[in-house]
Structure formats: structure tokens, C-alpha cells
Predict the structure.
Amino acid sequence: MSDSSSDQVLELAVRSSYGKLLSFVAARAGGDLAAAEDALSDAFVAALRQWPIEGIPHKPEAWLLVTARRRLMDFQRRSARSQIHAASLQDSPSPGEHPAQSGEDFPDERLKLMFVCAHPAIDPAVRTPLMLQTVLGIEAERIARAFLSSPTAMSQRLVRAKAKIRDAGIPFAVPEPAEWSERFRDVLDAIYAAFTTGWEDSPGIGVGSADLSTEAVWLARVIVDLLPAEPEALGLLALVLYCHARRAARICAGRFVPLPEQDTSLWDRSLIAEAESVLGRAAEKRQWGRFQLEAAIQSVHAQRAISGSTDWAAIVSLYEGLTQCTAALGARIGLAVALSQTCGAGCGLDALDSLPTESLANHQPYWAARAHLLRNLGRTDEARKAYQRASGLTSSPAIREFLLGQLTG
Amino acid sequence: MVSGAGLQPPETATTVRIRDGKREVHDGPYAESREMLGGFFVVEVPNLDVALEWAARSPSSEYGSTEVRPVLTRGED
């Protein structure tokens, strides 16, 4: 077995199995995610050392799992916590028995892990970073870059959240039916936040950027794999696929291109087709929700690639539906912009004026939308002020440049 | 001495309130400086979710808030 092929198998195992392995080990280590991560990373190091020499095991995941659980038992024997969690490790296989050979499988418990990460007792701001780190195995440093935080500060927040999960005893379990819908919405929100963080702050410029949207698509695929019949999970996947499909058209040569001006030939047709089919599966369930409506709006936009025009009346009705199921400002701003297309910029501006002023001071999309409508109404001075305000509220250089360019354009 | 116990650090705390009949759960200890400790209950439960259910049943959750904090157990520093 050559080094490169064992490296590849290992990399694939890391990418596709990290969360599966971690959730299984952590749930049996008294919810101690940090200890489970240490044990798992030791197992990966052992694999890097042994696989090129001894060959790739028949079941790589199972090999990593057994090795990680042995490491965990070693840590715990040495620590004061041993008495507390030793009992939970009693069901570990004895050293002689190795599921890598015996062919035993282990359950996928990533759903429990996702519910732990998005638990209401966890600070909402750390839920997405925690999910990215534990479900996908993304390093804290890269998460920090995407969230515009220092690596030290991000690591500390992650360490604190994991300590809380362990010490406060957040259970590795899926919620009871009575709590399901609210808790599930928190999970979907955390996945969507991974997407918007990648999308708004570092829109995929260059290789190795902090862009998280690919990872968010991955998370959305995981939740659909785990819950294939949940319409809102399907809606979320469709939504991120539609947006992801427009990546190449959204930033061209470092410049931001707004949706109505994008060159549709740069849109990824296969991702759009997948989004359509996923949204179709969601619609069969006939339980509308926020993410399905947002995906449906993107579906209307995607039609422009075929019809050459945008059905703004359909978008207005979808946004009207959306404002019924979420209080999010973004939905009402989207409605105002859509209205400006069907009944004029003045109509859109009236809709913006009806929003509660107290939450708008630092809301970038609001100021960008307002600037755009003011400019279309010929109210140049007010438009200039609004563009400046919007540009001061974005951390993306491409978007800032675009907004400031509108002043002269 | 009648009884006593050490608590785990404030970072392990979770606060529960009932507002308009709905349970609100937040990370962290109660934050408002004008609030004060009005009493305590000790429950032995398997995990935080069960503790939060008990906290929500406390009458104080209806008008104030109930902070859930794990007690230090032997062997922990």
C-alpha cells in the first residue's frame, strides 16, 4: 500500500466521518467533547503512522473508533475523572476484539451532536462555530477567520462551550416531540448562519479564503441525510444550493455583481437542478416553512437563466408569505425591494419606512436597499448618505467597493 | 453546619424564565444587577434538560428567573 493512497483514505475518513466518530465517542465519554476530540486526533495520528506500514484496515472508521476509545480510556484512567465516567466505558470492546476485523458497525449519532451544539443553553453566537468544528472537523483557526475573530478568542469560546456541555450535563439526545420544532429550528438556523457567514463576509475570493459556504452546504446535506423527510431541512438544503450555484457569477474578477445583473451562463446548472429537485421533495410534504419559502424565492430568480426575465409578482407573494412565518428584518427588506419592481421605487421605499426604526441603525442590507431605492427615485444626496452608511457596515471589500461605486455610477 | 455545597463556575450556568406562558432558556447566569438571590433548590437529575424542566416549574421563573448551576462533586476541582 503506497503512502499516498493511505493518505487519501485517511483524508476521506476525516472529511466524511469526523462528526460520526466524534459524536459516538463523546456521547460515551460523559459528553466530554474536548476529551473525545483529543482521543480522536490521537487516533488519526496513529493511523498516519500505522496505515502506510500495516495497510489500510478493512473498516477504517471502525479502526479509528476503537483506537480513539482506547485513548480515551487511557486519559481517563490517568485523570481524576476516571471514577465518574469509567462506568460509561464498560461497553468498550476488550483489547483483543477489534471491529475493524469483526465487521461491526456503529450508529451515526451526528443528529444528537447537532442538537447539542444548537442547545438553547449554548450561546447562539457560538453554536455555528461549534457545529463546524465538531461535525465537520474544521480547525478553530479557520472558523475564527470566517467569523472575523482572533484565533485565540474563537478557541476560548469553543473551549468554554465544550466545558459547559460537559459540566452542565447537556444530554446527547434528540429532543422530545413537544420541543422538537423549536429545537430543530435552532439547528437549521445554526447551519444557515454558517452559510451566510461565508456568503456575506468573505464571498469566496480566491483559494484558501475563509469562505464557509461549501462547508455549510455540506452541513445541510448531513441534516438531510439524517432527516430525509423533514421539509424544512430539504428547504434549507435547496436554499443554500441555489445561492451556492451563483457563486461564480456573484464575484467576477474580485468585483461584486448584484443578482439582477449576474451573467446567468456562469450559474452552476447542475446545482440549480439539484436544488429544484430537493425543493420539489420538500413541497410534496405540504408543510410550508421559512426555508422552503426562501428557497422558492431563489427558484424564481433561477428561472431567469431560462426565461431571461424575473417574475417579480411571484417573488412579492413569496416574500409576503415569508413575512408571515418569520419576524426577520431581511424578509421585510426583501419584500420592499420586490415591491419596488412591481409598483415602483416609491412603493418599495414606503415599505422600508414602515419598518421599526430602532433595529435598523446597523443593518447593512437595509441601508443598501434604501440607497438603491433613493437613487432610483433621483434623491441623490440621500442615496449617497445611505450608500456610505451601508458600505461602512460591511466587512467584505468587494461589497464595499460595489456600494461606493454606486455613488458615482 | 446544616448543609452546603460548592457550585461549578458561572460559565456552566443556564437561566430559565417563563414569559407569556413560554419557556425561555439562556446561556449564562442571571445578568440583571438589580436581581438578587431569593432561594435555592437542590435536585438530583440525569442531565441539564431535566434540570431545566424543574427550573421552569419554580414559581420564581414566572416573574423573575431561575438559574440552573451544577453542584461540585467530589473528585472535581
Remarks:
- The mean pLDDT of chain B is 88.
